[in-house]
# Entry
Amino acid sequence: NDRTETLEFQAEARQLLQLMVHSIYSNKDVFLRELISNASDALDKLRLTAMLDKELAVDTDDLHIAIEVDRDARTLTVRDNGIGMTRDEVVSVIGTIAKSGTAELLRQLREAKDAGTSQELIGQFGVGFYAAFMVADQVELITRRAGEDGGTRWESDGAGTYTVTPIEDAPQGTAVTLHLKPADAEDNLHDYTAEWTIREIVKRYSDFIAHPIRMAVERPGSDGAEATTETVTINSMKALWARPRGEVEPAEYHEFYKHVSHDWSDPLETIHMRGEGTFEYEALLFIPSHAPLDLFSPQGRRGVQLYVKRVFIMDDCDALMPNYLRFVKGVVDAHDLSLNISREILQQDRQIRAVRRRLVKKVLATVKELKTAQPERYRTFWTEFGAAVKEGLIDDSDNQDVLLEILSVVSTHDEAELTDLAGYVGRMKDGQSDIYYATGENRATIENSPHMEAFRAKGYEVLLLTDPVDEVWVERVGSYDGRALRSVAKGQVDLDTEEERKEAESERERQRAEYADLLGWMGGVLADSVKEVRLSSRLTTSPACVVGDAQDITPTLEKMYRAMGH
Ligand code: ADP
Ligand code: MG
# Structure
């Protein structure tokens, strides 16, 4: 075909494909899960688009996925009659990887020494469509976007380039055909053209897919009659969230999680709940076991999906989960909403707000429970998501108390272990009335700071806060358990008892008189840099330090603002 164009994969896509071709991932069966997952997404999208756009003349009565095999040609096709792709969509979504964090992932992969680590990293990323190249040496994709006339054929062997060709007669939707690697290839464990292999993989990974997955199977004729083929549905299509909790196996939850999250590893926690009464809903939520690479990038989020009576309505439904819990994945199926509901209306809807309040409470309660019952798992949670959760102390005053309970911080009390605020308060010294914290880039910088000297001398514990968000929440929260949160770097810190203070005051008077000339001279010399030069009571070994006024912003925050261009 002279209209065939040969194009190059984007550099990052090429590197990821290399990894697939060279079989970095040991469980190759999951390629089928990825293709079925994409097909299912495409069917959801078509149903939704047809619902919103009545002009679009498409038939949505028989949305399904078909798996076709040709044992002689050794091909396996996954076909859907979903939304399909335009030529430009094929080039932009299959030829490139838009996910933020790709470059960083690839750098880490290059550095990963052993195969185990690499698999873990790839697992965190989710390779999606490219997984096809684990089992195929040639992949062909034929697609036609719903509502468009012409279709597109895409072909590649997974090396540097692919071709795209316009075609006249493609059915609406997408068909991905894999030319399977030779059956005797040493690392090919399964024959992916065998009916039972396919059935088993679908059962294990994709049983809950809400659309029928069909396959033609051979039935031997009885008593010498001709063999017949028959098309059967090989998944149960049961919406997992609608089933009673006690009847769902953990493995089923895990596979469902992988489908909605596009993650390849198991979740840390599963939350399955049901709301009854005036507004019925079911929610199946997951806390992942690791943070996505784009947790802190503004574009990067894929949170909770909204369904209405089993029909997919939208991805990333921010009305259901606050930003600080953006890492929570899953599905909420609300029974009494209009299928046409828009994001804006959802944000205003009183019942949706009530659901959101309940979901948030449940997620936080789950974390709190984890903290007391399974400290190890909680630690994983906090290490991965703590920095995001702390944003809740700024945004979500309703849940401040429980957020302060699940909070963990590093402190001078222990080199290695995190502490919580209750632990700090429990260790406070007699006569200590405030909770002290220090902020900075990392533990070492803070500990070397002269501000710490007086506290060390006194034996007072200091919280060491190193996330940029810490500056903001400590200010916002102000106190815990009736005790003020006080920065070691701000204002006058009173560390002494009444008597010591009087003594020190007269001593300081004496010193002030003695050093008046020096201080006046230094104040003059440094006039452009500081507000005031004064004698310090806080230092024990350093000769001088710079302090902020109680109202001033702290150095870390100042740095943060400066970096942001203020
Ligand atoms: P993800 O599913 O995480 O987005 P994939 O690599 O699995 O990543 O797929 C990349 C993109 O390719 C999808 O987001 C979708 O836009 C497109 N795509 C893949 N398969 C299909 C399909 N069967 N029908 C329509 N679009 C598809
Ligand atoms: Mg996918």
Notes: The CA atoms of residues 285 and 330 lie 4 Å apart.
